Structures are given as structure tokens and as C-alpha cells.
Amino acid sequence: MTILQKFALGYSVVLLGAAALNYVPGITDVDGRAFGIFALDLFDDALHLVSAIWALLAAFFGARASKVFLVIFGALYLGDGVFGFFTGYGYLDFGIFTNASEGLSFTLFRILANLPHIALGGVALGAGLRFGRNT
After folding, report:
1. Is pTM beyond 0.70 here?
2. What is the domain range of residue 49?
3. Each residue of 18-65: pLDDT tens digit?
4. 3-state DSSP assignment of residue 38
5. Which ranges of the chain does DSSP label H, i.e. alpha helix?
6. Which of 3, 51, 57, 115 measures 20 to 30 Å from 68, CA to CA?
């Protein structure tokens, strides 16, 4: 198994965990926010689940498929997280289309809300570009 496939496999596990957050007792608060920060709904859960399946299939099909997953997934999630700083909403869940922009903000809440997509996206994109040079 190549390093790219290991990354993709790792992402499948992390994304399955993200999809499961709403269903673990004690994780969500009375407002339905995971850790008091993330308002995850069924659409978000489906997005994470589909991404996890994509990652798992990429790992199964090989290094080239894993590179494609890491680069595309990474760019999409990184962009979504960065966009969240500028508007308060991302585009992957169509939040920018259903909510008015809250403007640029670097409050602790906004950082914590967008950090997972920035970190997951940045690492995936970096790994796909760094380790996928020969695929």
C-alpha cells in the first residue's frame, strides 16, 4: 500500500467519524451543535459519508485514484474552510446560497468552525501534490 493510499484510507476513517458525530451521545449540545460549534445536519452527514466512501474506494483502487481524491477533496475542503472566514458559511453545504454573508471574521468561534475543513483540506492537498508526483 502506497503512502497515498494510506492517506486516503485515513481520510475515510476521519470522515466516517465526522459523519457519526451527531449520533454519539454527549457530543451535541441542546442546540444540536457538535462540541457546541458545528451545526451538522443530515446534508452535512451525507456529504461526509459520501466523501468517506470516495476516500475508501480511492485507497482500494490504488495510488493514482488516491492522488485524485486527495487533490480534489483537498482543494474543495480547503476552499470551503477559507470561504467560511470570509462569509461565515461554506459552499459545500450550499450555506453561501441560503444565508446572507456575515463578513470576514477571525473570532475564535469562526476559527474553530472552519479549522477542520482548512486542516483536512490543506493536508490532503499537500499530500496529494507532494507524494503523488510519480503517479
Report:
1. yes
2. 3-131
3. 999 888 888 888 777 888 777 778 888 899 999 999 999 999 999 999
4. strand
5. 3-20, 42-61, 63-87, 95-98, 108-131
6. 115
Burial class (CB in 10 A: 0-12, 13-18, 19+), 67: buried
Rounded to whole angstroms, the Cα distance separating 73 from 70 reads: 5
Q: Cα dihedral angle (103, 105, 108, 114), rounded to 10 degrees?
A: 70
Half-sphere exposure of 52 (CA within 13 A, CB side): 15
- Count: domains in the chain: 1
One-letter amino acid at 17 equals G
pLDDT band at 135 (very low <50, low <70, confident <90, very high): low
C-alpha cell at 23: 449520533
The rounded distance, in Å, linking the Cα atoms of 47 and 15 is 9
